[in-house]
Specification:
The structure is a single chain. By secondary structure, the protein is α+β, with helices and mostly antiparallel strands. The protein has one domain. A two-stranded antiparallel sheet has the order 1-2. The longest helix has 18 residues.
Length: 46
């Protein structure tokens, strides 16, 4: 069994930062991607 988790605090912080950048810089010509770290949980480390 394996569980994949995205830390919600990191997700929220990155989302707010991207919204602030969009307001400050205006629309961009091409959409970008943001890669967030994730946690892997196995029965051995829970």
């Amino acid at each position: 069994m394996l569980a994949i988790s995205t830390p919600t605090a990191t997700l929220a912080r990155e989302t707010v930062n991207l919204m602030i950048q969009a307001i400050d810089k205006g629309p961009t010509g091409a959409p970008g991607q943001t890669f967030l770290p994730f946690d892997l949980f196995t029965p051995e480390n829970i």
